[in-house]
Write a structure and sequence with these properties.
The complex is a heterodimer.
Chain A: E1 3-7, E2 10-12, E3 18-25, E4 34-40, E5 44-51, E6 58-60, E7 68-73, E8 78-83, E9 92-99, E10 110-113, E11 117-121
Parallel strand pairs in A: 2-11
Antiparallel strand pairs in A: 1-3, 3-8, 4-5, 4-9, 5-6, 7-8, 9-10, 9-11
Chain B: E1 4-7, E2 10-12, E3 19-25, E4 33-38, E5 45-49, E6 53-54, E7 62-67, E8 70-75, E9 85-90, E10 97-98, E11 102-105
Parallel strand pairs in B: 2-11
Antiparallel strand pairs in B: 1-3, 3-8, 4-5, 4-9, 5-6, 7-8, 9-10, 9-11
Chain lengths: 123, 106
């Protein structure tokens, strides 16, 4: 059974940085693309970023492009989200999520999600 | 970005009812639409992918359908555990986008 556990959330001042981590277990991590998705009561679910199974490609949502960096360490089964120049509207619950199909072979949504980690950007 | 317009935003129903939720994509997304169920304080759970493919372990009372750029999630006979919020998602084109959600309540 796959499991994803996020950590690293907290309260941070505007303009500062924060790094989220996601520890994966129960599946062959290095064969699946991984995503970050965030959720707020007001804006609902917002896809943030994806990284390919091998870390060779990354794609970002427009609202975080140039400020956030997704990365992974397949030797440690870890996914990361480095967030910089944080703004109040980045406040959300951040989830890591796993592609349903290996190597992105079929866009089948996300079959496993972490429990989420809350990021609050406030002075 | 592709907009996923989900309706209704909320629906009241009873155990045993049949309920249908709709998402309309602003452009062609092929059949790359997923549906999720979310309960308070929990992460979304994948129900349907590829518009109509039932995720493993999901009860067969859940079904999905595509008609052009319109996608529907149906629950054939509501059970008490089905009362939750449901989201659609297009997985055809980055950035992936979600519908606004449908709150299914008693």
């Amino acid at each position: 059974q796959a499991q994803l556990v996020e950590s690293g959330g907290g309260v941070v001042q505007p303009g500062r940085s924060l790094r989220l981590s996601c520890e994966a277990s129960g599946f062959t991590f290095n064969t699946y693309g991984m995503h970050w998705v965030r959720q707020t009561p007001g804006k609902g679910l917002e896809w943030v970023a994806v990284i390919t199974y091998d870390g060779s490609h990354e794609i970002y949502g427009d609202s975080v492009k140039g400020r956030f960096t997704i990365s992974r360490d397949n030797s440690k089964n870890m996914l990361y989200l480095q967030m910089s120049s944080l703004r109040a509207d980045d406040s959300a619950v951040y989830y890591c999520a796993k592609d349903t199909y290996e190597s992105g072979s079929y866009p089948g949504g996300f079959d496993y999600w972490g429990q989420g980690t809350l990021v609050t950007v406030s002075s | 970005d592709i907009q996923m317009t989900q309706s209704p935003s909320s629906v009241s129903a009873s155990v045993g009812d049949r309920v249908t939720i709709t998402c309309r994509a602003s452009q062609d997304v092929n059949s790359y639409v997923a549906w999720y169920q979310q309960k308070p304080g929990k992460a979304p759970k994948l129900l349907i992918y590829g518009a109509s493919r039932l995720q493993s372990g999901v009860p067969s009372r859940f079904s999905g359908r595509r008609s052009g750029t319109d996608f529907t999630l149906s629950i054939s006979s509501l059970q008490p555990e089905d009362f939750a919020t449901y989201f659609c998602q297009q997985a055809d084109t980055f950035p992936f986008t979600f519908g606004q959600g449908t709150n299914l309540e008693i």
